[in-house]
Inverse folding.
């Protein structure tokens, strides 16, 4: 398994910060590959001395993370410290459950660690995590402390600055969209006459006063209007709706059902069993809409979800991005043969996007480097709009100018650099969301890939070989289908996209995990050599007819020829699956 280029940078920055500061926080959203990055950091023991412990808070993460470590580094020893098995690895990595390790009798068995890594690190300000951290540092004051999370700002406002003094890197969700690892969002702000009232809602210690939001938003006529707008734009999409209170959610659910849509609901008062069954039904596309109250912003990923409805404002931009992020996952076509997903529609009936700006419009990438947080003085990446350590929101500073532009909605004067009207919040025309900003070109992808991709059949197919593994992207019935395989393993369906570049991302990611970059990477000298006699014989070519053919392209042609029948059969089976599902 090989890291993507952005993952390599993330690992390098976190490792350097551990050496320099002894601790660091790394922030990466859903789809960035946090577990792979953790495995890479844990495998590199140049910055510390001693065994590694990776701490998790959910049972399913323990086995999942251990498997990822094995895929990344098969020579690294590992074991588990859970309720069922309590084994420490003295020269390797131990995956531990926080709820088990926090107990005094279990802490006594802990060896002197060289690195304590905390997955979902926003939990580490809790007393249970602090107990483990304090005990670890008492045993070895030089132990390095690493936190990795997608959601650094805790709702209870307990700052992480007591645990971490810096944030080494933050991968932005926009970067993953631009590079094709998440689908593109299409955002729409729809005013149903509540924006002015919502702007005046007071804030509590954690967020906006949701009881006040409920008073403004929860009216039968508004709920039916919301459903009508959804029916126009996204009635055929798996939809996740974020509401202010349970009563609000119940009424929104009733409005969807009254319009004939299948709808379900989750909230914090439900039992774990009820919640699992509800989420499972939505994941299986048995219901079209799921309404929730502060439950699905973290720790839940459902690939079929392709429409997000915001019926509540959010104090923090990170909260808004978490909600939108629930719909940005790409779909595994093998797992969901009845789902095609090229983008995600975001319907904001509140003020979140007007307040924070659409993620399409933000310019996060200001280059490398750190800056000091105004509030907690922690070192954080320059691109952060909110401090990952303390949650401080950096104000947007507009450049001074003597020129103004007029808002078409209210006529107010605004600075030329303003993206939204300072009087009414309306976006200026040139700042409206655009998908073109996210377009990933095939040229970009081919430059980033560690493998050489060969185009075949007049551009209707791409093929790459990595010794034991291969992948191809084929245009089929107007869409681009990615397939991949390994020796002695069945062929896999990797992607189904309207955009060839996005399908190439899925195929290239498969090769990074399954291929041998050391022997088949694009920099290997043998790729450009003349084909061997055996290759020519297999392809039925002579040296004269094979002029210009490289050994690598010959290998790609042979791979296609050997798998052509299986590829065609797999495409036909997939077409039939989709026909039956429809």
């Amino acid at each position: 398994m090989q890291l993507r280029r952005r993952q390599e940078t993330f690992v390098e920055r976190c490792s350097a910060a551990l050496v320099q500061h002894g601790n660091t926080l790394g922030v990466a959203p859903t789809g960035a590959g946090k577990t792979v990055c953790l495995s890479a950091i844990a495998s590199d023991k140049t910055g510390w001395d001693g065994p590694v412990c990776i701490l998790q808070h959910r049972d399913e993460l323990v086995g999942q993370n251990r498997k990822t470590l094995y895929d990344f580094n098969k020579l690294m020893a590992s074991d588990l410290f859970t309720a069922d098995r309590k084994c420490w690895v003295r020269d390797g990595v131990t995956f531990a459950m926080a709820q088990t390790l926090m107990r005094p009798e279990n802490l006594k068995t802990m060896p002197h660690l060289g690195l304590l890594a905390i997955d979902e690190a926003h939990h580490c300000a809790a007393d249970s995590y602090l107990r483990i951290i304090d005990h670890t540092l008492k045993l070895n004051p030089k132990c390095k402390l690493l936190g990795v999370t997608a959601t650094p700002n805790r709702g209870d406002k307990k700052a992480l600055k007591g645990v971490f003094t810096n944030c080494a890197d933050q991968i932005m969700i926009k970067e993953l969209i631009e590079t094709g690892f998440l689908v593109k969002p299409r955002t729409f702000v729809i005013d149903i006459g509540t924006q002015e009232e919502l702007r005046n809602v007071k804030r509590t210690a954690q967020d906006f006063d949701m009881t006040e939001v409920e008073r403004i938003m929860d009216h039968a006529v508004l709920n039916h209007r919301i459903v009508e707008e959804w029916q126009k734009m996204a009635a055929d999409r798996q939809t996740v709706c974020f509401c202010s209170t349970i009563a609000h959610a119940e009424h929104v659910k009733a409005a969807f059902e009254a319009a004939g849509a299948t709808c379900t609901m989750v909230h914090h008062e439900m039992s774990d069993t009820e919640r699992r069954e509800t989420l499972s039904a939505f994941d299986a596309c048995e219901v079209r809409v799921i309404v929730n109250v502060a439950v699905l912003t973290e720790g839940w990923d459902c690939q079929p979800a392709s429409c997000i409805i915001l019926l509540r404002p959010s104090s923090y931009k990170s909260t808004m991005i978490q909600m939108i992020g629930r719909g940005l996952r790409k779909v595994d076509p093998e797992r969901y043969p009845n789902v095609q997903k090229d983008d995600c529609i975001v319907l904001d009936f509140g003020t979140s996007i007007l307040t924070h700006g659409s993620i399409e419009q933000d310019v996060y990438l200001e280059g490398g480097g750190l800056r000091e947080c105004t509030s907690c003085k922690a070192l954080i990446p320059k691109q952060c709009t909110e401090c990952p350590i303390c949650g401080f929101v950096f104000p947007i500073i507009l450049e001074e100018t003597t020129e103004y532009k007029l808002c078409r909605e209210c006529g107010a004067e605004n600075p030329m650099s303003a993206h939204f009207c300072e009087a009414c919040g309306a976006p200026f025309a040139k700042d409206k969301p655009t998908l073109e900003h996210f377009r990933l070109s095939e040229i970009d992808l081919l430059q980033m890939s560690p493998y050489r991709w060969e185009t075949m059949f007049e551009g209707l197919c791409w093929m790459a070989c990595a010794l034991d593994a291969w992948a191809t992207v084929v245009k089929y019935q107007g869409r681009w289908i990615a397939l991949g395989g390994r020796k002695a393993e069945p062929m896999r369906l990797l992607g189904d996209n309207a955009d060839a570049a996005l399908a190439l991302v899925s195929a290239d990611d498969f090769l990074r995990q399954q291929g041998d970059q050391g022997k088949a990477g694009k920099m290997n000298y043998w790729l450009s050599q003349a084909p061997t006699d055996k290759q020519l014989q297999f392809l039925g070519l002579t040296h004269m007819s094979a002029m210009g053919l490289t050994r690598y392209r010959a290998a790609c042609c042979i791979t296609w020829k050997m798998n052509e029948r299986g590829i065609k059969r797999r495409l036909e089976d997939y077409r039939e699956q989709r026909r039956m599902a429809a």
